[in-house]
Give the backbone structure.
Amino acid sequence: VQLVESGGGLVQAGGSLRLSCAASGSTFSITVMGWYRQAPGKQRELVASITSRGGSTNYADSLKGRCTISRDNANNTMSLQMNSLKPEDTAVYYCNAVVRPGSWNYWGQGTQVTVSS
């Protein structure tokens, strides 16, 4: 499975960004997908996740109400709409896919999101 993120960039506080992740390869084996982020000097943390058919989503408390995760299995894509961005949202955002069997984790290369104050 290969994952490629896009949509990062520089935005002012209060602005919005939409991140996308395109999956290729053995996409039929993907179960849960998610977005993680890592700010300088901090550990990577979960932003949001979505189950294979989109029936269940999970959000980090810091972003709850400000972002929406979605998934299009027909096109093997996943998106993250982020609104009301804050400077503390600045980080590299990574796409993640859990692949069966074995629940292996696959990662994209990351996309930089920078929110200016």
